[in-house]
Amino acid sequence: MIEHPVRTHASREDLPREEQLAWRLAEVATDSVPVEPEVAEMIGNRVIDNAAVAAASLARRPVANARAQALAHPYRPGAAVFGAGPEVRSSPEWAAWANGVAVRELDFHDTFLAADYSHPGDNIPPILAVAQHRGLDGAALVRGIATGYEVQIDLVRGICLHEHRIDHIAHLGPSAAAGIGTLMGLDTEVIYQAIGQALHTTTATRQSRKGAISSWKAYAPAFAGKAAVEAVDRAMRGEGAPSPIWEGEDGVIARLLSGPHARYTVPLPAPGEPKRAILDSYTKEHSAEYQSQALIDLARRLAPRIGDLSRVAEIVIRTSHHTHNVIGTGANDPQKTDPDASRETLDHSIMYIFAVALEDRDWHHERSYTPERAHRESTVRLWRKVRTLEDQEWTRRYHDPDPDKRAFGGHVTVVFDDGTHIDDELAVADAHPRGARPFAREQYLAKFRTLADGVIAPSEQDRFLDLACRLDTLDAAEVRALNLTAPPGALGTPRGASENRGGLFQ
């Protein structure tokens, strides 16, 4: 790896574009190194993972509405839309939108955490949509996805957005644009312009993940993917981007991040070095914010030791700064302890999640979030006894430069009504590569079968998995068939709560 320094440059300095971060990322995208076999296999795993969580979300209103928007933009050759039949094709940017929402709706796919947060699997829908539209084969698709993961994860390692309350999709727009550039074999100049445009159009605040969280939490990454497709299209037509986009006097670093005097370092593969970043990311066993994964596993482990939950006086979770301030009591969001809160809010409340996991000794992507479940009296009582504290040691471990030592869990103290207590802690989730039950192909297949059951016919599941398990050898026709078709009754209703509400495109 090379360490690329990034800082603000005054306009009079005339920073050469070859020294700009956007250009360096474009060079990574155009470096045609072979994709290593273990990387290709993991890309197949993540395509399976995305499809699994998309299948489970097909009937949910936000997904149905996004799909309806895509289907209102038919195009040939176009790209497939999750759930729709093989004959249905939408323009690639709208297919990326609909499929991106389906993948993100349940907050149930892969993650990478470092200086910032990310769900790098969000790169797959826009890159796949363009591959299908342009008639590209599986080898090109795998190269494009490897770049998307590499660029996003490298940005997440080097640039913190959260401390300035900028949403993590500001790293996703550039990475998806870079991945599409690799997929299509575009030159460095075109990809450079597309990255700049994608960053400029996808920089937004984190209010989408704060307070009363709405369906936009799932829509925001899909919007970034759609914007990346459009950015590449414009750049291919010769249109440019703000430059330098990160380093400019009024650029992202100077005005939105740490200011004109800030210094960042972004690690990038050296020329000829394989793109392996996907291997440092990890998926979820549970449908909830990643920083809750280890704590769900810990709750399930603690429950038999606690026994009678009515005796619990207090539960204190000592954890990292990020966990405390994003999904814990450090967020100061009253919505996180409100039984009427949205599903999107509850999956960002470790107080709720830990209470339910203790009671049920399990976690389910639907049952754990129903209004009836959130209003259960015993749950509400237990939920409001849970609080989080930032612990400097857990914060240090969260940011450890050695990924083999990084920790995303916490230490839990359960205090009983007689003053006695029990303690336990867990550093990483069971499904993490260093966890008790790390995910490999077998576990991804099992997750897919579980989530697709009752939604996708078994024969259709088999057809899709046959393609996904040999992704890098697919021909163009097989890439176009890389989709799931669901029966009409599994697709939900594309409207709001009132039948009088619809969109501009009926």
TrEMBL record:
InterPro entries according to UniProt: MmgE/PrpD_sf, MmgE/PrpD_sf_1, MmgE/PrpD_sf_2, MmgE_PrpD, MmgE_PrpD_C, MmgE_PrpD_N
Keyword Lyase: yes
Endpoints of the signal sequence: none
Residue ranges of domain MmgE/PrpD C-terminal in the record: 286-471
Domain MmgE/PrpD N-terminal: 19-263
Region (Disordered): 486-506
Keywords: Lyase
PANTHER family registered for this protein in UniProt: 2-METHYLCITRATE DEHYDRATASE, 2-METHYLCITRATE DEHYDRATASE-RELATED
UniProt name for this protein: 2-methylcitrate dehydratase
